[in-house]
Every structure is written in structure tokens, then in C-alpha cells.
Amino acid sequence: MATLLLALTILSLVVAGIEAGESVTITLLDSAVAKGAVCLDGTPPAYAYSPGFGDGVDNWHVFLEGGGWCLDVDDCLDRTKYRTGSSAKLMSEVQNGVISFGGMLDANSTLNPNFYNWHVVIIFYCDGSSFMSDVEAVDPKHNLTYRGARIYDAMMDELLRIGMGNAKNALLSGSSAGGLSTILHCDKFQSLFHNTTKVKCVSDSGFFIHGEHFIGADWRESSFSRVVSTHGLTNMLPTSCTSKFSPTLCLFPENLVPDIQTPLFLIESAFDLYQIGSNLYSPGDRSPRWVSCLQNLMFCNSTEIEIMKDFRFTFINTLKNTIANSSSRRGYYVHSCWRHTHILSPRGSICSLFVGHGLADKNIAEAVGDWYFDRSEFQEMDMVNNLPLNCTGDDQPTLLKKCMDYYIQHQMP
Q1: Backbone angles phi and psi of 50, in degrees to 5
Q2: Nearest alpha-carbon partner for 233 in 256, 220, 249, 212
Q3: What is the CB neighbour count within 10 angstroms for residue 93?
């Protein structure tokens, strides 16, 4: 339950932070029910679609929503009470069945110059498995269905039906658990199109590290092991990975990314809020002291700051080793802000998509656009500082807050 609540908190912060843009109606894909492509509670999956226009009519951007995973039957049953397990709950939570597209989904050419007039689709997340499960049997006691992969396939069929197969440019993206799903589905997405279509993928905060020798490795591995078991993923994960690693290890992107053939861009924070908050300690091992630190960085002491710095070191090294074994068609933007997810970010927030002069004097949206359209490669990590900007050598509890204040003042005008 604690895992679900943290995932819902992150999701609610992201959704609440989407800056009002074009209003788009949510559609329930009722035709998917006959295919068994349903949410955990058996309700039909949902998506929101904004048609392209102008010279973007031949281009498609598909976004996979995130929201954590459910680790066991009770966890999945809890999710059916919320939008992360039920489209009925989604429709009851969203006013008038309408959502606004923001960030890289925005139809405003000033805010989103690279992708503003594309066909844009959000596929809502209600299966708890990163769109990977396909269990035929329905849980007889709780009436739970594990059908994330069927939802993904049914959604792709629907998008092809309305014209996506004729795209000249196509982009699959996703945030958090949707970012992991983007990595898992990237090559499969590419296979839907003609050889002449430019197809690329962007994973936003989806690079969840194993960190075998770092705090919480057993907890992280146990969590993904339970996801694999609960959702029946053993035979659903890429064989290019499972031929070398256990199914559990094939949910960690460090073991997946080297085999992906489609161009892939990673947007990450080396101080990822979710991974530091959720993946270092199990819920029962999170002390009140640690929880207070996560809720307000001014309360962090020197020990807790060192843990965050050690996470950054582990994250950076894991990503560097992964990229070193991968195609040159990888792009990445790894900053040092206390943040999780970016694609739907509003203007004006810390490390947001469209403001400031970030790595290599580009913000995230500029970097992704240049990489997608082959204007330039982009492979940048903040390798200078192990805290935001040059704030090393001070172990006072207010250090991280001071650094972030400085960062906001000088880097994000």
C-alpha cells in the first residue's frame, strides 16, 4: 500500500503540474474489452487523442502514462480504487472527461516548437505492469485481470486504424513506469511503421537502476521479482535480455538498453526524487528521520546528503556503463535537480522542460528536438558536481536547499 501511495503522490503531482493547454477528451476503448485488453478491474482502457494539423499531419507522438507498479494481489486490488487500476476511477477523477495537454504534448508553437502540431496521444496506465502483462486467467477471488500487454496492443491497433501507420515521423515516449514501458516497447513500436518512417523513443525518468552494490539492492530486486511473479512476466520480457539474465533483472533498463535497436533518448535526474525516496529502503525501513528529509530537503543531515550523493554516483556510473555498451544513436540529458519526470512539466518549474539554459546551453525540450530531427547529437550529463551546481565541501543540513536556491537563481531565470 505504501508503494501505491507514493506512486499516486508522484502521479498526482505530475498531473496537477500540467499547465493548461488544449482541452482533449478522454476516450474509453470499448472495443478492447472483446480482446481481453482491460484494466486491473476489468474496465476498458482509455486514451486521449489530439489530431495533428498543418505540416504536422503526418507525425505522431504517443505518450505512455506512468504510476508505479503493483507488487502483489493486495497491492493490485488497492490500485483498482484509483485511476492507476480502473478507467472508471479515471473518468470520475477527471472533470468532464477532459484533460489538458502540456509540456512536450502542448499544441502551442511557442512552448513546444518541435512537436506542437503533431498527432498526440496519451495512453492511460491502469495495469500496474508497465503495459507488459498478459495473463489469460482472471483472479477468481478478487476478479483482477493482468492484461497490460493486451492494452498496449489494442491501443496500437486503434491508432493504426485512425492513420498512425502512414506517419512520416513517430515518437514513443513515457514517464516513470511509462518511461520503463517505453524502453520495453521501443523496438516493437518501431516495427509498426514503414522503413521510411523516422521512429524514435524518449524515456523520461524510466531508468530505474539495480545498483547491485548500493543501499537497497535486495529491496529493488525483490520488488521487481514480485512484479514479474504477480503479472506473469517471465515469458513477456525481451528474449535478448532473458537469454542472459533472470526475468527480474530484465526489468532494470541497464540490462535492456544495450539491445534496443531503435534510437532512444533518456531524460533523467541523477537525484531522482522517486528512486531516492522509494527504491533505497522498503516502506518498513524508512525512518521518520529519512521521511522528513525527503519531504523537506532542509531537514536532511550530512548522513542523508551522503546517501543522496552516493546514489548519484551509482546512477551516473550505471548509466555510463550502459551507454558505453549501446548504440551511438542514444541521446541523454542527465541533470542534478531533485525531480522525477519532465515531459509534462509546466513552464517555470525547477528543471522544467522549456525554461533556463541547462546542459550545453540547451533545455530539455531543445535537446530532445535537436536529437530527434538529427540537427545534432545530444549526450550530456552533469559530471561536474555531486550536488546541484558547485556546492561540495559543506556538510551542513541546509546544504542541498542552499544549492537548489542558487541553482534556481542562476540557472533557471
Answers
A1: -120, 115
A2: 249
A3: 12
pLDDT score of 10? 46
Facing residues of 267 across strands?
A: 204, 333
- pTM of the predicted protein model: 0.90
Spatial CA neighbour of 79 closest among 26, 124, 137: 124
CB 63 within 8 A of CB 123: yes
Q: What is the pLDDT of residues 161-189, one digit of tens each?
A: 999 999 999 999 999 999 999 999 999 99
What does the alpha-carbon distance between residue 17 and residue 5 come to, in Å, rounded to a whole number? 18
- DSSP category for residue 82: S
Round to whole Å and give the CA distance between 127 and 385: 38
- Cα distances from 115 to residues 16, 25, 108, 176, 400, in angstroms, run 22, 20, 9, 21, 35
- CA–CA gap between residue 401 and residue 142 (Å, rounded): 45
**How many other C-beta atoms can be found within 10 angstroms of the C-beta atom of residue 234?**
13
Using CA atoms, how far apart are residues 249 and 269, in angstroms rounded to an integer? 22
Q: CA nearest 20: which of 413, 346, 407, 409?
A: 346
List the one residue out of 157, 146, 148, 102 whose CA is nearest residue 125: 148
Q: Which neighbouring-strand residues pair with 171?
A: 61, 200
In 3-state terms, what secondary structure has residue 163?
Answer: coil
Do the beta carbons of residue 338 and residue 400 sit within 8 Å? yes
Beta strand 169-175 pairing with 46-50: unpaired
Burial per residue of 354-372, b for 16 or more beta-carbon CB atoms within 10 angstroms, e otherwise: bbbebbeebbbbbbbbbbb
Q: Say which amino acid occupies 298.
A: M
Give the residue numbers marked as catalytic. 176, 272, 342
pLDDT-derived band at 12, boundaries 50, 70, 90: very low
Q: Tell me the mean pLDDT in the region 20-27.
A: 83
